[in-house]
Design goal:
The protein is α/β, with parallel strands linked by helices and 489 residues long. The protein has eleven helices and 25 strands. The strands form five sheets. It has an eight-stranded parallel beta barrel. Strands 6, 7, 8, 9, 10, 11 and 12 form a seven-stranded antiparallel sheet that branches.
Length: 489
């Protein structure tokens, strides 16, 4: 089996030119040649405007097909172009994960008079007002679609609350609709973090659950995607997702690979959530991301021996989708925590070249981001190729020094010239003596990153002493592998 590698194939600041799906299709074969086996594409359905990145959900049946919200296409293109992009990835042997946002709706077509109470924004378990009448944009009739695919009309009975009263124009309140209750098994931040934004979908309403399940089956059939990236799962009842995924897998017979975004650095919460959904999904390893971010900020004050502590990768590796950054951590976003450039190669070496976890490469880290003036991560393409061809076999860690750590992968028979030694420093230069195995005795290893010009020869007992330059990462591979990488670089 070859290593799986995912790429988040979008970022927040893409141009609103409607050409994204075409660009995806044009790059599919390049991604496959690089070693990408899965792509996570942005939300494909109609948002509140053409500029919407995809998280201001209006109509999930409109994939760029109907004249709604002042546009037929979405920011990324038309329905036909989206389906063609999915097919292009499939033709290249790449699975496609669709970004699914089920937490909220925005941009309703009509206003309804709704009875509501206000809850304390800092503690949603505490009601701070009596009942009052508000005008909420809770009626979704989708006039441009005219009932095609589904005649379901969303109204106030489908939602739990909102933060917007059309009459007072206030966004400082959290309005909970009378007779409704926040889901009790969401994240405990703010007492209860069921409410996030827009019109909060009420999944205690059986007709809403039926409609959502029907839409999921429709979406899979229409688009042919392989699985899902689930947005903002900590704001929705865990049993809803557990039961939904089991239902869709049973109905479709699909393995339906799924990864959820539970944004918390608290490993206890992440593991509890995985237990609550019966491990029906993986989770992005947000705790590992924060370790990376902290280490990049701290420099030589960070102890590299602990960089995997309190992470899904360490505690539940089979459920870990590892990443360095994403669209939410970019500069200017609400979860901004962008890892410093100097440390990104270290992070990518950790997620790409170790045996556990499914790594997810960020589009902007691979291509760069001219809008925010960020260059591509140094040697990232080479690191992905190293994972594809050579990061196999038994792993052993060398974590004796707080500022100079390493590990070896001893290769396997299936992958020619596989096996490697990794050294990384966040302070001064140095070297680590590591055991590659007697099968490598007499073999010469070279630094694929080309920071260290010398070669390392494995002694007759299977040991080698592998250098690393200050604040660098070196990936030591057999000479044959090194020459192949340099030739194709």
């Amino acid at each position: 089996m070859n290593n799986e590698t995912m790429m988040q194939y979008f970022e927040w600041y893409l141009p609103n030119d409607g050409l994204w799906w075409k660009r995806c299709a044009a790059k599919a074969e390049n991604m496959a040649a690089l070693g990408i086996t899965q792509v996570w594409l942005p939300p494909a359905y109609k948002g509140t405007s053409q500029e919407d990145v995809g998280y201001g959900v209006y109509d999930m049946y409109d994939l760029g097909e109907f004249d709604q919200k002042g546009t037929i296409r979405t920011k990324y293109g038309t329905k036909e172009e989206y389906i063609e992009a999915v097919k292009a990835f499939h033709d290249a042997g790449i699975k496609v994960l669709a970004d699914i946002v089920l937490n909220h709706r925005m941009g309703g077509d009509e206003v309804e008079d709704v009875t509501a109470v206000t809850d304390d924004p800092q503690n949603r378990n505490e009601q701070i007002s009596g009942e009052q009448r508000i005008k909420a944009r809770t009626k979704f009739t989708f006039p441009g679609r005219k009932g095609k695919y589904s005649d379901f009309i969303w109204d106030s009975s489908c939602f739990t609350g909102t933060d917007w009263d059309e009459e007072s124009k206030s966004t400082s309140q959290i309005y909970r609709f009378a007779g409704k209750h926040w889901a009790p098994d969401t994240d405990t931040e703010f007492g209860n973090y069921d409410y996030l934004m827009g019109m909060d979908v009420d999944y205690s309403n059986r007709k809403v659950v039926r409609e959502t399940r029907q839409w999921l089956r429709w979406y899979l059939k229409q688009t042919g995607v392989d699985g899902f990236r689930l947005d903002a799962v900590k704001h929705i009842s865990a049993p809803f997702y557990r039961d939904m995924l089991k239902y869709v897998r049973t109905q479709t017979g699909s393995a339906l690979p799924t990864v959820g975004e539970y944004w918390s650095g608290d490993i206890g919460k992440l593991l509890h959530y995985l237990d609550s959904v019966d491990n029906e999904m993986s989770l992005f390893d947000v705790s590992l991301h924060y370790n990376f971010f902290t280490a990049s900020q701290a420099g030589a004050d960070y102890d590299l021996r602990h960089i995997l502590d309190n992470t899904i990768l360490k505690e539940r590796p089979q459920n870990a989708v590892t990443f360095v950054d994403n669209h939410d951590t970019q500069h200017g976003q609400s979860l901004q925590s962008f890892v410093e450039d100097w440390f990104k190669p270290h992070c990518y070496a950790i997620i790409l070249l170790r045996k556990d976890g499914l790594p997810c490469v960020f589009y902007s880290d691979y291509y760069g981001n001219p809008v925010k003036n960020f260059p591509p991560v140094l040697n990232l393409g080479k690191l992905i190729k190293l994972r594809r061809f050579y990061a196999y076999g038994e792993q052993e860690d060398y974590l004796e020094d707080p500022h100079l750590i390493g590990w070896v992968r001893r290769g396997d028979e299936e992958h020619e010239n596989s096996g490697m030694a990794v050294t990384m420093s966040n302070d001064q230069s140095g070297s680590i003596r590591m055991f590659m195995g007697k099968a490598f005795a007499g073999k010469e290893f070279s630094d694929a990153m080309q920071f260290c010009p010398e070669t390392v020869t494995i002694d007759k007992e299977g040991w080698g002493t592998f250098p690393c330059e200050a604040q660098r990462v070196s990936i030591w591979v057999q000479q044959e592998a090194f020459e192949q990488l340099i030739t194709t670089d």
